[in-house]
UniProtKB/TrEMBL annotation:
It comes from Elysia marginata. Pfam families: Transposase_1. It comes from the Eukaryota. InterPro entries: RNaseH_sf, Transposase-MT_Hybrid, Transposase_1. This is Histone-lysine N-methyltransferase SETMAR. GO terms for molecular function: nucleic acid binding.
């Protein structure tokens, strides 16, 4: 019997010119607000490296109402971001 492929949780951040960051969560973990904010930190660093003018023009996040997106910790991070 073959073992099936493991599930992978990934968050993809992109804009019109392409993917800015592909953030893969360690196997067996699910996303929470703290992990999502860490991904946002990595996103900010990736934007600075790959699309430096984007931060000056402003970044728009399109979130759904998933708990990690709407958590107070995430909302505070977003307020500091921009």
């Amino acid at each position: 019997m073959q073992r099936s492929a493991a599930k992978v949780m990934a968050t993809v951040f992109w804009e019109a010119k392409g993917v800015i960051l592909l953030d893969i969560l360690p196997q067996g973990q699910s996303i929470n607000a703290a992990q999502y904010c860490s991904a946002l930190d990595r996103l900010r660093d990736a934007i600075r490296r790959k699309r430096p003018g984007l931060l000056r023009r402003g970044v728009v996040f399109q979130h759904d109402n998933a708990a990690p997106h709407s958590a107070n910790l995430t909302q505070q991070w977003l307020q500091r971001f921009g």
